[in-house]
Amino acid sequence: MFADRVLSGMRPTGSLHLGHYHGVLKNWVKLQQQYECLFFVADWHALTTHYGTPEIIEQNAWDMVIDWLAAGVDPSQATLFIQSKVPAHAELYLLLSMMTPLGWLERVPTYKDQQERLSEKDLSTYGFLGYPLLQSADILIYRANRVPVGEDQAPHLEFTREIARRFNHIYGKEPGFEEKAELAIKKLGSRKSKLYTELRTLYQEQGDESALEKARSLLDEQQNLSLGDQERLFGYLEGGGKMILVEPETLLTEASRMPGLDGQKMSKSYHNTISLREDPDSIRKKIRTMPTDPARVRRSDPGDPAKCPVWQFHLVYSDDKTREWVQWGCTTAGIGCLECKSPVIDMVLVEQAPMVERVREYEEDPTLVRNIIADGCERANKLAEETMRDIREAMGLSYS
Ligand code: SF4
Fold this sequence. Notes:
This protein has 3 domains: 5-172 and 246-257 and 366-394, 3-Layer(aba) Sandwich (Rossmann fold), CATH 3.40.50; 177-237, no CATH class; 277-363, Tyrosyl-Transfer RNA Synthetase (Orthogonal Bundle), CATH 1.10.240. Helix content is 58%, strand content 6%. It has helices at residues 18-34, 43-50, 57-70, 88-97, 102-106, 109-117, 126-129, 131-140, 154-171, 177-186, 190-206, 209-220, 227-237, 280-288, 309-317, 320-331, 337-364, 366-394, and strands at residues 5-10, 36-41, 78-82, 146-148, 249-251. The strands form 2 sheets. Strands 1-2-3 form a 3-stranded parallel β-sheet. It has a two-stranded parallel sheet with strand order 4-5. α8 (131-140) packs across α9 (154-171). The model has no long low-confidence stretch (mean pLDDT 91). It binds iron/sulfur cluster. Iron/sulfur cluster is lined by residues 292-293, 296, 303, 305, 308, 310-311, 326, 329-330, 335, 337, 340-341.
């Protein structure tokens, strides 16, 4: 059993490209071995910007999940599900919206940026303004404490942390909290109770962050405490009330930056992608016709790899020896550009071959993917419901 839970999602953009593979999926494959992972298809998020073209969402979602599986995401290690199949995301989104100050949403930096970038769409909608809050609900509903985010998403995670704090502050004050927390400490057993109390005092009196961390791990390991008592003790550590929602932390991951064929970010809208299922002949053609350092007009003109998008591919795919060969051959005109591209083509094809094989298996038997998602949705619903019970209770909606 893992102590940390990771959540990550992707909008259903259809079949994926190498930028997704190197930027996200390779990380997911690693993360699933280290953490309890939940990976989801963010179909409601797709509607925040593509509400006018819903017909593409479903097929895109299935294609995307097949690519996840092809890339090595393993349903026996991670939970894969579709956001709209877990309606509690919408319930939490609604409940959080009651206490979210409008100004917090308006100042999320991507709000204005995206509206300007996607100016061909009318994004002056309530759903678009609220999408960071929907993201918060996605994370908080699973009490995911680790979220892999890129730089541009960091403000969204900070926003989620603020929402969790505000929620805990408003709704975490249960009557008799201190007495209940003291009772819960006793349930830890004498040795651990003493340790918890010492660590709490160290943190509260001296601000000792390492004591806080130790106390948190002590609580993480407790199997015998009820969830309610565990949350009380987490909240009591910092002097607050019951911690109903968990503040997620950024999970820093190593991601190779995979540029597009023209050196810009790889993106369908720039028409510079190689898809995970691209036909091998098309891969060869696309790489052979990639632009190179413009200084290399003739074969005898030396060039500079730093000015060439092919070099970026070598950084992702090649070993040191090949890179040295490129540096030498390019700067001395010892090799031609087609020669230089040849090992890249080989490596892309080698990487792609097992993925294509797996795609075929899933395409031949679509029920496999449907079953994987059905199982994942069932598990996600169960986990979401555990949190929703506490949230409804805290917000006076349990009607027991
Ligand atoms: S030799 Fe390689 S790195 Fe140099 S310009 Fe040609 S393709 Fe680019």
